[in-house]
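Supplementary Methods, section 5.1.

A reviewer requested that the exact input to the structure prediction be made available. We therefore reproduce it here, unchanged from the version used in the analyses.
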Amino acid sequence: METNWYEELPIAVTVCDKEGKILYMNKKSAATFEKYGAKELIGENVLNCHPEPSRTMLAEMLVNESTNAYTIEKNGIKKMIYQTPWYENGEYMGYTELSLIIPMEMKHFKRNP
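The structure derived from this sequence is encoded token-by-token as follows.
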């Protein structure tokens, strides 16, 4: 059974190839970037969507296959952004960005073995 569970996930999922061409945006990602064209951004280069210094950092990530994770706050909403490479059969294919709304104050649990 094949499903598209990720299409309506309440997390913005954006996927690009290793050159930065946007390949996929789920509904939440399209809504997040609606004022920039929403799903019309598919086929565009993600580097053109970022100002400096983010653009240079993202270009380096595309080459070095590194992960970048951080939180942001905008318009009273706090989000965690997680940008990481994706692979198919072990071959580097590009990047995915997950963007999810998180509480302003969040519990943190430290688990010890």
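The chain has one domain: 12-102. These observations are discussed further in the main text.
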